[in-house]
C-alpha cells in the first residue's frame, strides 16, 4: 500500500509551533497588554521530557521519548491530550499545549493548557507492547500529572483504553483509585456519557451554527468533506449524517473515498472499526482520491480532522469549500489563512470548532470529583449551551473589532488569560 499525505507529516508537526506563535503574535497585536505579560504567555510554563525503556514482545528493550508540556496554568489545572505518533516533536507538543490554553479560555473552562506525546507508531505495537509503553509513560508522568494539577486525555493515536491504563497505573502508585486524573476513560471506570463522540459532535454543532449565520442552512444540499476518520472525523461524519447532512468525502492515512451522492457513513464506520483502511474500501459509485485531492474536491464544508499543517499556501487557493471547520488542531498555516481570508472562505478555528472534546472532558472531571454522574441528554444540553455561547463570543469580537474568527477567538482567550494573570499578580 502506498501512503499518500499532503506533505511529510514531520514537516507539518515541525511547523506547528511556528504557526501557533504566528497566530499568537497576530492576536496580541490587536491588544494593549504589558510586554512582560505577552512574553509570559508566549512561553510554556514547564516542559518535561522522558526517555524510558519498554520490553518488546521479541525480548528486545527499546527506549522511547515522551513529552508533557504545561503551557499555562493561570486559569486552573492544565488540560490536554496525549498523542502517540512517530512524528511527535517537542515543538509540536508546545504548539498543541498553547492551543489548549486558548481553547479552554475561550470556552470558559477553569483550565490551563497542556499536551503530551510519545514518539511511536502505535499501529506497529502489539496490545501488550502498547499497554507496557503506556503504563511506563504514565509512571514517568506521575510527578507532573494529578487530578488538581494536570489532567491528560486522548488525542491522535490514543483512546479510552490508553486512558484506562494511565488511570490504573497512577492509581496503583497512589494506592487508591483516582479516576479524575485523566478524562476520556471508558464508561465503566468513571468515564462520561458522550465523551467519545464529543469532539466530532461539537464540530457539527459549530458547523450548523456557522451555516445558519451564513444563510446556507439547507441540510440536504450541504456537501461535507472530512479529512481523517478517527475519533474526531468519524464521529463528526456520523453526527452530520444523523442530522440530515450529506458527507461526500472522507479520508484516513491511506487515502480518501468520494461519492457525489453521499457516502454510506454507518457502513464505512463499521468497515474502518473492523481494522480496514479506506484504500481497501470497494463499493459501486465510490471513487478513490488521494488526501491532497480530497482537500480540493468540490464541496460546501471542509472539515480537516487529521493533522496540523494540511491547508497551506500550496492548496489554499484551490479549496472549493466556502466554510472550513477545523476538527484537527492547527490544520491551516498562517499564509493559507491569509489566502482563505482574501477568497472570503469562512474558517472556523480549531479552538472553537473542536472544543467539544475538552468541554465534555471537563464534565467528566467534574463528575469524577463529585462521584455524581449525568445522563447523555444532560451532557448534550450543556455541551451545546457552552459551545454556542463561545460561538457568540467569537462572533461579537469579529463584529465589534473587525477581526477574522481565528484572531477574534484568540484575542478573547489571550485577553482572558492576561487579565487573570494581572489579577493574580506576579509572584512573589
Ligand atoms: P485519531 O488517531 O483517532 O484519528 C486520526 C485520523 O487521521 C485517522 O483516520 C488517521 O488514519 C488519519 N490520518 C493520520 N495521518 C494522516 C495523514 N497523514 N493524512 C490524512 N489522514 C491521516 O485522532 P483524533 O483523536 O481523531 O484526532 C485528530 C485531530 O483532532 C488531531 O489534530 C487532534 O489533535 C484533534 N483533536 C482531537 C480531539 C479528541 O478528543 N480526540 C479533541 C480536539 C482535537
Report on this structure.
This protein is an alpha/beta fold and 428 residues long. It has two domains: 1-10 and 22-43 and 192-428, NAD(P)-binding Rossmann-like Domain (Rossmann fold, 3-Layer(aba) Sandwich), CATH 3.40.50; 44-189, Leucine Dehydrogenase, chain A, domain 1 (Rossmann fold), CATH 3.40.50. Helix content is 46%, strand content 17%. It is built from 14 helices and twelve strands. The strands form two sheets. Strands 9-8-7-6-10-11-12 form a seven-stranded mixed β-sheet, with helices on both faces. A five-stranded mixed β-sheet has the order 1-2-4-3-5. A hairpin with a 2-residue loop joins strand 7 and strand 8. Helix 6 (195-214) packs across helix 12 and helix 6 (195-214) crosses helix 13. The radius of gyration is 20 Å and the shape is globular. The chain binds nicotinamide-adenine-dinucleotide. Nicotinamide-adenine-dinucleotide is lined by residues 5, 9, 154-157, 199, 227-233, 251-253, 291, 305-307, 327-329, 354, 357.
